[in-house]
Amino acid sequence: MNIAGRFLETARRIPSSTCLVGPDDTPWTYEAVADRALRFAAFLRDHGVIAGDRVLLTFPNSVEYLIAYIGTLASGAVATLVDHRAVARHVDFVRSD
Prior knowledge:
Layout: H1 3-13, E1 18-21, E2 27-29, H2 30-46, E3 54-57, H3 63-74, E4 78-81, H4 88-96
Parallel strand pairs: 3-4
Antiparallel strand pairs: 1-2
């Protein structure tokens, strides 16, 4: 079981517990994050991403980053993380590797 599986298992056990607090002090429950992550996983699959594909994620630290990361793993794809401040040359290298 990968990190997404563990996260989703936790969301099923304690859905209304606070998972994280957003930058505006808004609490996010496990259920809310899991729901959005699973919708992102479905979005990836609907757009042709299959198990083993790499998905490039370049986000600042945020709720959306966690949702995209968990969703990518839940889809069966591999999350390829790149610092959102990286220069275009570095992003191009990671994409082509």
